[in-house]
Amino acid sequence: MPSYPVPLPLMVCGSTDDIIVEREVLQGWRPYLMEGDRYWECQQGQHFFRFFQPTLVAK
What we know:
By secondary structure, the chain is an alpha+beta fold. It has three helices and two strands. It has helices at residues 23-27, 49-52, 54-58, and strands at residues 11-15, 38-42.
């Protein structure tokens, strides 16, 4: 999926140990983040970090 700015607040998150979405791809969103957007990398949890780390995702 191509990266580009969007007119709504954007949250980009992923896991540093994800074997499907590589960290470099996740970090490729950084240049497109605007004020109010969020970028977060979960340290563990692989591709399903939302399931394995729900408390961290909620914060």
